[in-house]
Amino acid sequence: MPKLLKKLSLLAVAGAMAWTSSVRAQDAASSPAAAMSPAAATSPAAAPDAAPAAAPSATPQQPDSVAYPPGANAGTATDLQWPIPADSTSVNPDGKGKVTNDELIANVAHNKVSINLVWTLVTGFLVMFMQAGFALVETGLCRAKSAAHVMATNFMIYGLGMLGFWICGFAFMFGNYWNGPVPIGWQPTLGQGLALLNSGWSITVGGKTLGLLGLKGFFLSPSVFDTAVFTLFLFEMVFMDTTATIPTGCMAERWNFKHFIVYGFWVGMFPYAIYGNWVWGGGWLAQSGINWGLGHGAVDFAGSGVVHMCGGVIALAGGLAIGPRLGKYGPDGKPRAIPGHDIPMVMLGTFILAFGWFGFNPGSTLAGTDNRIAIIAVNTMLAGAAASVGTLLTMYLVTGKPDPSMLCNGLLAGLVAITAPCAFVNSLGAVILGFIAGVIVVFSVFFWERVVKVDDCVGAISVHGVCGCWGVLSVGIFANGTYGAGWGGVHKLFKDGAWTILNNDATPATLKKYAELTGTGATGGWTDVGVTGILGKYFGAPAGDVSQFGAQFLDVCALAIFVFCFSALFFWLSNFFVKIRSNREDEIAGLDVPEMGVEAYPDFQLTDKTSPQIG
Amino acid sequence: MKKIEAIIKPFKLEEVKEALADLGIEGMTVSEVKGFGRQKGHTEIYRGSEYTVDFLPKIKIEVVLGDSIVENAIAAIVKAAKTGKIGDGKVFVAPVEEAIRIRTEETGDKAV
Fold it and tell me: HSE (CB half, 13 Å, CA atoms) of A270?
């Protein structure tokens, strides 16, 4: 064992040194090329193209009917034409009018929005499939006698949560989306229809506007009936459902199904939406950059905080409220193992989640035309892989055997952790923060189980809560400034070792100043740097930025306090109306028959041999 | 008539079955059980919590035979099931009062 360790650590050090020097050379070469142009149309989720790789220069290929299959290069002016009235003067021999400039512009614009819509929808479908992944992971980690019940909570959360989100969750979260802080020159990727989301509730404190809640789009009302809004609804709903299904894992095997139904509606309607408005809906955490100079405001690309840490904190509140399973803790307070009934199911579910994450992270550009999606996807992949290896090594060192259920938790921990920084880090950053997440999750599972004594059947609090927090903070550590210029309405311009900050207040004067500073005139030459973390310099940024970490820290604090208190209040209050905990005898027998009326595995004789003694 | 109950390691089932078949014994009942003898269990860790594995899976073979072949059968079972390592199992012998074949309603030695 010590010999193996020595070999591994030498290998790791050598590999890291070689990698660091090669990547640093890569990033140093590309950052002068990353000058941002203000003229490019952008969205809050996309920056002007800052692709690190240069296109190879070659003579452009001519369409060749011999070399390419028929139709491979289809697309001519005929495809953009349509018949014009007979009395028109500008007519071609085929009876159709020439394509005018305006028609061409309209076509191109339509196609751009269409690509973005299709991308957002398809990635949204992938994220919806993650529901299956969560269901398999959670059910596999619980006992067979409650498998139908655990599956049912994961199944119904889809419908209950969606309806809750449709009723008011979406409205609270995105009702005021259009009024959020955005970069200079921002355009909505999904089309101007998003301008319908323009009503909310803010308060003014010390002269600063703090957005608190959106107030438009209840029941997806006719006032927001637009393909862009509907696309956004679908995409954001499947993200909400991810949050909603996290607590079902923590609270499994003893949750009264009737109470779960109440929870299902509540979670879609309130906690995720309210906090989510503050970060993604243009609320006060997103505004903390323009209001208080905290970097670009809270930056959470695909939701390490908004989705995962939120779900993990709700799970914590729920786990504390519902109490441990019978027999989980002995009279001496030591936890007893209650092994899950199907490890292959857990691992299949984990792969389904990893697959769905290719929709979760790259999809959050809301734009197929934002080529950053390639980098986001690769970062996502790398972080998950690095985390699983981190967990593997940690388990060998700490327990001597690599528990497969922990390996799965490890992969997911890395994916959770990369979810916030995925667009803003380079691959080395992704691997490092993923690996760290894989190590953290092991100790976190031990901590909540042994020290705090909350019975978390699947490690939801650790994977999503703790590693989600690490993900949000990672943005403030590892982000390397190659994406996200103008995020949160804050333009951070860098030149010769100094920063200038320009906030987008939508006035012509500011636009002029911006054009000046980023131009080639006397006062120009400033680079609009993207989201940067404290250690950004080591990953390719011109300099580090501490204030971004401040914004991230504020974000996790606000989340932890608000979501925990709000959830704890819900669980405590609702218990008076519908009991949160199943009956003792039902829990011992397995919840399948008493609460669901059906066994998950009626054809098998269940041994219940993994249940601990009770009392 | 005697009933032999043999508790053996699961992977020895085929060998024991063939050894009994060589003696002309054509029927038996087999069940999957778990148990332990003087060998102690061991401790494993699942997600940070310890648990002891006391019981090990075993196979129980039940055969009812005429008195004349009991000794040969016991010898065959013991020889086939033995590995020499701890956990080989045990054989129990008990007298049987009556045996009936359901299809033909034969009783006694003819039913075995």
Answer: 14
Quote the pTM value. Answer: 0.87
Segments making up each domain of chain A, as ranges? 108-483+548-596
What would the two tokens of residue A90 be? 């500008």
Asked whether the beta carbons of residue A337 and residue B47 sit closer than 8 angstroms, the reply is yes
- Residue ranges of chain A with per-residue pLDDT less than 50: 21-55
Residue of chain B whose alpha carbon sits nearest to that of A339 = B46
Nearest alpha-carbon partner for A255 in A135, A149, A139: A149
CATH number listed for the domain at residues B2-111: 3.30.70.120
CA distance from start to end of chain B? 8
Asked if A306 and A276 touch (Cβ cutoff 8 Å), the reply is: yes
Distance, in angstroms, between B39 CA and closest chain A CA? 19
CB of B43 within 8 Å of any CB in chain A?
A: no
Six-digit token pair at A347?
Answer: 């691992």
Cβ neighbours of residue A543 closer than 8 Å, sequence gap 6 or more: A494, A497, A499, A532, A536, A537
Asked if the C-beta of A452 comes within 8 angstroms of chain B's C-beta atoms, the answer is no
Find chain B residues with C-beta within 8 A of A400's C-beta: 45
Amino acid at A443: F
pLDDT at A59: 54
C-alpha A268/C-alpha A258 separation (Å) is 16
Instruction: Give the nearest chain B residue to A398 (CA atoms).
Output: B48
Distance CA A88, CA A481 (A): 54
Closest residue to A449, CB basis, from B44, B49, B55: B49
CA distance A456 to A451: 12
A330 touches chain B (CB under 8 A): no
B47 touches chain A (CB under 8 A): yes
Q: Are A411 and A437 in contact (CB under 8 A)?
A: no
Q: Can you tell me the ipTM of this complex?
A: 0.84
Residue contact A406–B50, C-beta within 8 A: no
Q: Could you please state the CATH topology (level 3) that the domain comprising A108-483+548-596 is classified under.
A: Ammonium transporter fold (1.10.3430)
Report d(CA A519, CA A132) in Å as an integer. 50
* Structure tokens belonging to residue B82: 């033995």
SS3 A139: helix
pLDDT tens digit sequence for A518-551: 999 889 999 999 999 999 999 999 999 999 999 9
pLDDT of residue A51: 41
Mutation for B interface: A138, A341, A403, A461, most B CBs within 10 A? A403
Domain spans of chain B, in order of start: 2-111
Cα gap A163→A169, rounded to integer Å? 9
Cα A60 to Cα A63, A69, A193, A513, A603: the distances in Å are 10, 18, 37, 39, 64
CB spacing of A335 vs B49 below 8 angstroms? yes
pLDDT digits (tens, 9 = 90+) for A167-176: 999 999 999 9
